[in-house]
């Protein structure tokens, strides 16, 4: 797999935490096949651990061990063919400030993040997309920092299904039996750049597809965040224990139905049985990422996960009594822990 100038394709993962570490390890594991040159931008204890002993990712069929090139500053790595941004949304302003040295005009930047993405209303090929083209999602990109730093032309969307957590710096545990990554162009085309990046992940054993409708895929993942995240945040327990209570399970199911209504009102009906979605979550002894953030004292993704979808609900006239209650309680929990600014 060749990048610019016929050289090896250079791919950098920006933020090798639970998801980023897993993705970087998959890319590195497949490098012998794909020919990719893999690096990461990391900080603090994570950077020190990767430099000292590499990345260790514990998956169902064994450990993945690799030593990607690790740097604290993007200028240490130079321009890349592709950058995969996996930080939490509150960290994106910092990414915007530091990502510049990784970018050429034709560098692909895949955002594998939760919630409504900052580019959601850009290059939308659906009939409802035209009137809203270029509309902002301020909850995901305050002050247009990412829009200015990266731009829509470089951007790919990404959705990841992988129940992961950081066991210790540089060590990732993946509790789901299978994981998958979905990439997609905002305009719905099946581009060469998306196919090439997907191939690099598949070479490392990670199922990765290119979707012609990445926004619907995002709503599908967001339904999990909307139903699992708030209730587990309130119980402080993993999904299996939380959903063992039928009352909590019913509340989460109502949240899924409301989320489906929001998605459909914005032209993105999500297929599947809502109960099946809850049943799948109920089988996992895994803490959602927002609960992991609370327990680790990290800034929490309240705005992109809850505030943005609820704003879209209000704009479409979709009633959301359960989601509004759960989001308000999640917001208070985050404020009480000092991980979200009081008043939003």
CATH architecture of the largest domain: 3-Layer(aba) Sandwich
Estimate percent helicity. Answer: 40-55%
Which sequence of strands runs across the widest sheet? Answer: 5-2-1-6-7-8-11-12
What proportion strand? Answer: 15-25%
Characterization of this structure:
The chain is an alpha/beta fold. It has two domains: 4-212, NAD(P)-binding Rossmann-like Domain (Rossmann fold), CATH 3.40.50; 216-336, N-(1-d-carboxylethyl)-l-norvaline Dehydrogenase, domain 2, CATH 1.10.1040. It is 42% helix and 16% strand. The strands form two sheets. It has an eight-stranded mixed sheet. Strands 4-3-10-9 form a four-stranded mixed sheet. Strand 3 and strand 4 (62-66) form a beta hairpin. Helix 7 (214-235) packs across helix 11 (289-296) and helix 9 (246-265) crosses helix 12. The chain is globular, with a radius of gyration of 19 Å.
How would you summarize the topology of this molecule?
Elements: E1 10-14, H1 18-29, H2 31-34, E2 37-41, H3 44-53, E3 55-59, E4 62-66, E5 69-71, E6 82-85, H4 92-98, E7 108-112, H5 145-149, E8 155-161, E9 164-168, E10 171-174, E11 180-184, H6 192-203, E12 208-210, H7 214-235, H8 239-242, H9 246-265, H10 274-282, H11 289-296, H12 302-316, H13 321-336
Parallel strand pairs: 1-2, 1-6, 2-5, 3-10, 6-7, 7-8, 11-12
Antiparallel strand pairs: 3-4, 8-11, 9-10
Helix pairs in contact: 1-6, 7-9, 7-11, 7-13, 9-10, 9-12, 9-13, 12-13
């Amino acid at each position: 797999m060749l990048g610019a100038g016929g050289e090896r394709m250079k791919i950098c993962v920006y933020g090798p935490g639970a998801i980023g570490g897993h993705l970087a390890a998959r890319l590195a594991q497949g490098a012998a096949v794909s020919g990719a040159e893999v690096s990461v931008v990391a900080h603090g204890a994570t950077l020190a651990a990767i430099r000292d002993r590499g990345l260790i990712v514990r998956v169902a069929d064994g450990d993945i061990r690799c030593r990607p090139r690790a740097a604290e500053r993007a200028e240490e790595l130079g321009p890349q063919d592709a950058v995969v941004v996996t930080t939490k949304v509150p960290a994106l302003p910092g990414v915007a400030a530091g990502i510049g040295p990784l970018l050429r005009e034709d560098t692909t930047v895949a955002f594998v993040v939760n919630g409504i993405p900052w580019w959601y209303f850009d290059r939308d090929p659906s009939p409802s997309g035209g009137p809203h083209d270029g509309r902002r999602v301020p909850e995901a990109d305050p002050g247009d920092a990412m829009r200015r730093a990266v731009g829509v032309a470089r951007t790919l969307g990404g959705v990841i299904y992988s129940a992961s957590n950081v066991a210790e710096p540089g060590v990732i545990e993946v509790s789901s039996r299978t994981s998958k990554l979905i990439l997609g162009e905002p305009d719905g085309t099946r581009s060469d750049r998306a196919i090439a990046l997907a191939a690099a992940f598949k070479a490392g054993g990670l199922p990765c597809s290119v979707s012609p409708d990445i926004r619907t895929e995002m709503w599908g993942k967001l339904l999990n965040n909307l139903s699992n995240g708030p209730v587990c945040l309130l119980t402080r327990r993993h999904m299996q224990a939380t959903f063992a209570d039928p009352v909590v399970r019913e509340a989460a199911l109502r949240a899924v139905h409301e989320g489906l209504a929001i998605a459909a009102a914005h032209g993105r009906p999500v297929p599947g049985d809502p109960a099946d979605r809850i049943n799948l979550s109920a089988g996992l002894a895994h803490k959602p990422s927002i609960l992991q953030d609370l327990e680790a004292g990290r800034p929490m993704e309240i705005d992109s996960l809850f505030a943005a979808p609820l704003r879209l609900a209000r704009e479409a006239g979709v009633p959301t009594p359960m989601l509004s209650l759960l989001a308000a309680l999640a917001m208070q929990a985050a404020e009480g822990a000092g991980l979200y600014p009081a008043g939003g």
